[in-house]
Every structure is written in structure tokens, then in C-alpha cells.
Amino acid sequence: MSVVEGCFRREYNMAENFTKEQLAEYKDAFSLFDSNHTGFVDVGDIGTILRSLGHNPSEKEIESLRAGIEKQGKSTVEFGDFLSMLANNFANTEEVDPAAELREAFKVFDKKGDGTINVDELVHILSSLGEKLNDDEIESMFNEGNIENGGEINYETFVKLITSE
Looking at residue 165, what is its pLDDT? Predict the structure, then answer.
């Protein structure tokens, strides 16, 4: 089997993991970085291509992908290998529902299981974890939200407020 046949066969096998629409989108993104029309992209472009496709790999993940390619003595990636990379690392990435993720996160802090979180605890979470919010941003969120008696906030109402659901 020739090298070309091997590449085609690998690309064909990987194609089974994706819809026709996904394949067209991946090919378009890949082609944008294949400026010389050689069928290869530079290993340094992998992260940018993935992000252009809506994936959000961490720098550590990108570095791991690059290292795997470079370990094989390559500095470029062909489309079949790119599809393999997507299938093995990103194919199961589903569309993220921010509201559902917030609800799940808030459930962790719902100690009574009644759909509420203590405002002081929520302020601490918002100001210290993840993308830290400043006092003005937090105050603005609570001015628009419904704080119930006893300093509790209904997180379903809060999620709807901040996600415009």
C-alpha cells in the first residue's frame, strides 16, 4: 500500500466518527492553515485550529498533542491525523449549557437541598473561585436578584438572571 493510500484509508476510517457537516467544517478549518495546499499544517497551529472549531483545549492539552506529534519526529500534521486527534480527544465534546452547569455547581452548595444558597457563601464563591468578580460586579448581581429572608438566594432564579434564560 502506498503512503497516499494509507493516508486516504486513515482519513476514511476517521471520517466514520463524524457527520458530513463536521467533516466539511474540519476540512475548511484545516485548509485555512494549509496555506501551501500541501495537505499538512504546522504542529504549532493545532491549538488555533481547535479553538476556531469551538473547542477550548488548555495549553497543557495543546502541548501534550504537540509533544505526541513531535515525538514521532514530525513538525506537521496531515488531515487524517488531525481527524484522529479530534476523534480521540475532542469528538465527545458536547455543546455546553451554561445554565445547566451553573445549576449543578450551585447544588453542591445547597446544604439544605431546598434550592437556595446562603448569600454570604455565594459572595465568597464568586469572589474567590474561577473568574473572580469584584465587589461592584457582585453587588450588581444581587441588586437584580431575589434575596429571600434569612440571607438565602434561590439559585434557579439567580441562574435565570445571569444567563438570561
Answer: 59
Alpha-carbon Rg of the chain, whole angstroms?
23
Quote the DSSP letter at residue 98. Answer: H
User: 148 φ, ψ to 5°?
Assistant: -85, 170
Q: Sheet of 152-154: strands edge to edge?
A: 116-118, 152-154, 147-148
Q: Give tens-digit pLDDT for 97-128.
A: 777 777 877 887 788 888 888 888 777 776 66
Q: How far apart are CA 140 and CA 16, in angstroms?
A: 49
Distance CA(102)–CA(17), nearest Å, equals: 30
CA distance 149 to 116: 11
Q: How far is CA 117 from the centre of its chain?
A: 27
Place of cell 504546522: 42
Question: Which is nearest to 138 in space by CA: 147, 128, 129, 127?
Answer: 127
- Residue 28, number of CB atoms within 10 A of its CB: 11
Indicate the pTM of the whole model. 0.49
Backbone torsions φ then ψ of 21, nearest 5 degrees: -65, -40
Q: Name the 3-class secondary structure at 40.
A: strand
**Cα separation, 89 vs 70, whole angstroms:** 17
